[in-house]
Amino acid sequence: MGRRVAICAVAQTTYERDKWHQRFQGMALEVLESLLNRTGLDFSEKNGISMAINVSDDIFDARTISDNAMTDVLGAHFRCEEKVAQEGAQAVYYGLAAIMSGHTDIVLIIGHCKESQAKSRNMV
Q1: What is the model's pTM?
Q2: Which sequence spans correspond to the domains of the chain?
Q3: CA distance 49 to 29
Q4: Across-strand partners of 111?
Q5: 3-state secondary structure of 117
Q6: Can you tell me the distance from the alpha carbon of 10 to that of 31, in angstroms, rounded to the nearest whole number?
């Protein structure tokens, strides 16, 4: 019998009509911190989150390689970080496959889309 897999928690940013003052990295960090607080998970080497999947789209984010600014936010620096374009269901399946294969035990999936960034690229 295969390994058992479950979705432990979900979170999203607060809904506002206009978030012109926030960059998508900050919005994703808001979601990540909520998930970590609610689950008690962390990024420890032994029992922590060891794989991150980013769901994003180059066209909506108006940049090529739309996940390039997300690696650190996802806690994926020097860890397994993958990108799935446009499709949250595919990301969930990707995480399922990684766990079922025995490659990893805990996967973080974060999706983001923001059609207008803040004016300054120096703002996080």
Answers
A1: 0.83
A2: 24-111
A3: 15
A4: 55
A5: coil
A6: 9
